[in-house]
Amino acid sequence: MLVAQNCTNAPAETASDAGVAGAGVLLSFIITAGLAIILSSIIILYEALRKSESRILRKLLQSFSDQQLITGIGIQSVGIAKLDTMVPYHFFIIWMLSLLATATHISTLLALVGDFKRDWVLRWLRQLLMLVNLVLSSVFGVYVLRTNLTSLPGTLPIGCVSVVPSKGAEGNAALSILGTCVVIAGNFILYVFALWYLHSKSQRWLTGLQIIGIVFLLGIATGAAIRIITLSQAFGNASVKLADDGEKDWSFGQLLPLLLLLLPIVSAIEIFRGEMNVPPPICSDGDSMKLGDQELQFQPNPFWGSRSNLVKR
C-alpha cells in the first residue's frame, strides 16, 4: 500500500518499464490499430459497392480486434494494480494505448455490425468488454486529470495524487487539462454511439455513418500514436528522466506481442485453403446477405426480447 513517506521526496529519476512502454509493446498496439482501421475501411467499401463478402478480411479484422481489446484491458489492469509504483509517464502511455484499443474495436463494430447482430453471444460479449474498457479508460483519465491539476512531480507514483497536497496547475497545463476532459467525454460518447449503432434497426445512412466514423477514429488513433511516439523513450524522448534505456532494448518479451500478430494471418490462410469455415456476414432464410440489403436478420437475446425481430431499412 502507498504511504505518505513514499510521496515526500521526488527522486531525480525513475526506472524504465519495458513491459508497459517497450518498443515491441507500443508497436503491437499501433500496428494492430492501423491494420484494423484499414481492414474496416476496405470491408465497408466492399459492402457498399457489393463487390465481395470479404470473409477472410472479416476474420482477420475480428481477430485483430479481439486481440487488441483483450490486451488493452490487460495493460490497463496492470496500470491500476501498480498505482503505488507507476509514475505518470508510464500511466499516460497506457492511457494512450487504451485509446488505440478503443479506436480498434469501434472501427471493427462499424464494419462487422452485421456479424454482431446475427449472434447475440458475440454482441453481448463485445458490449461487456467495451464497458470494461470504458470504465478502465475513464479511471485512467481521472488520474491523468488530477495529475495535471496538482502538478505532481513526474518521478512520484501516480497514486500520490491522493496524498501530496495540491500545488495548483502549472501555467502551461490548461491545454492538457482541456484535452484530458475532451478525451474522457469522448470515450463516453463513443460508447453510447456504439450501443445505439449496434442495436439500431434503421439501416438509413448506414454507409455515411460508417465512413464518417472511420475518418473520426483514424484521427483518434493517429493522435494517440503520435503522442506515444513523441513521449516514449523507445521512439522519442521520455517526458521524465529514466534511470536506464530498458525501453529501447529488444528481447523476447518485446518480440512476443509482434509475433502474436501473425496468429490472425494463420487463421486467414486456413480459411483461404478451405480448412476453416466462416459464416456469411448476415443470414436470412439460409442465404448470404450484405449490410444495406432490404432485410437483415437480428438474433435477439434469448432471455428477453422478441425472437422474430428483423432489422429493416
From TrEMBL:
Keyword Zinc annotated: no
Keyword terms of this UniProt record: Membrane, Transmembrane, Transmembrane helix
Repressor keyword on record: no
Transmembrane feature ranges: 20-46, 89-112, 124-145, 173-198, 205-230, 250-272
InterPro entries in UniProt: Elsinochrome_Biosynth-Asso (IPR053018)
Protein name, UniProt field: Integral membrane protein
Protein species of origin: Microthyrium microscopicum
Lineage: Eukaryota, Fungi, Dikarya, Ascomycota, Pezizomycotina
